[in-house]
Amino acid sequence: MLPLIAVAGRIGARGKVSRIEVSFAGRRYLDAVIRAGGEPVTLAPRALSDEDAAQILGRFDGLLLMGGSDVDPAMYGQEPHPRTYGVDRRNDEFEAALCRAAARIGLPTLAICRGMQVANVAFGGSLHQHLADVEVPFQVAHGPHGFPSPLEGVEHPIEIAPGSLLTKALNGYDVPPAISYHHQAVDRLGSGFTATAWAADAHVEAMERGDGWFVCLQWHPEDTAHNDPAQQRIYDAFVEQARTERD
């Protein structure tokens, strides 16, 4: 039986694909899970207590959180920056409850881009709301010009901590470039997290929890995983861990 991977769905506005509001998951995420041998199941966003979230996730073998728009800054005690966009507190609270529940029950979890930011906030961390405002020794482009835009993400090198879950996931592959599409990043780490990868400007590109297989990436491996084995290996390792812990 294929490992069942819960994908935290997202609320979307009605449009060309539907005359009513939709719940959705991005195709690249689903495809990466399928290539890894998992069966993705999209969870419809709703108001959940942490207890409710734990009961739902108890039926699954892993949890995947996608990228997307910005987390409500009120969740980490800040006012919104002028460039903060797309905030929907319903999505934020739904995904945060899933993160806390997954950590509590030891469910293998992979959190991508916004998913990493939600996870950090869910455990009391904070975010840099707009990287262009952060003083660093030199700037690294973390998103395309005019972000947010319909353009693809930009590539930049990263450094990964030896011995980390991420290093083990790559299983001997060279460290791939980060495919970045974001203007925010982790500032203060949430409780239980350790930074395990960094960009050249010292912004955190990955973090992990010490109490299970819980890996968060600021970049998008699924964007190029269809033709880059190193990026696909991250999804492979996630699904392998889900299968191992289930069996």
Query: If helices are DSSP runs of H or I spanning 4 or more residues, what is the number of helices?
Result: 6
**Major sheet:** 8 strands, mixed
Count of the domains: 1
Give the strand content: 15-25%
InterPro entries: Class_I_gatase-like (IPR029062), Peptidase_C26 (IPR011697), PuuD-like (IPR044668)
GO molecular function, one term: gamma-glutamyl-gamma-aminobutyrate hydrolase activity
Pfam families: Peptidase_C26
Kindly describe this structure.
GO terms for molecular function: gamma-glutamyl-gamma-aminobutyrate hydrolase activity. InterPro entries: Class_I_gatase-like (IPR029062), Peptidase_C26 (IPR011697), PuuD-like (IPR044668). With 247 residues, the protein is α/β, with parallel strands linked by helices. The chain has a single domain (4-246), classed as Class I glutamine amidotransferase (GATase) domain (Rossmann fold). The chain has helices spanning 27-35, 50-57, 89-105, 114-122, 165-170, 229-246, and strands at residues 4-8, 10-12, 22-24, 39-43, 62-65, 109-112, 127-128, 154-156, 158-160, 178-180, 185-186, 193-199, 204-209, 214-217. The strands form 4 sheets. The chain has an 8-stranded mixed sheet with strand order 4-1-5-6-14-13-12-9, sandwiched between helices. Strands 2-3 form a two-stranded antiparallel ribbon. Strands 7-11 form a two-stranded antiparallel sheet.
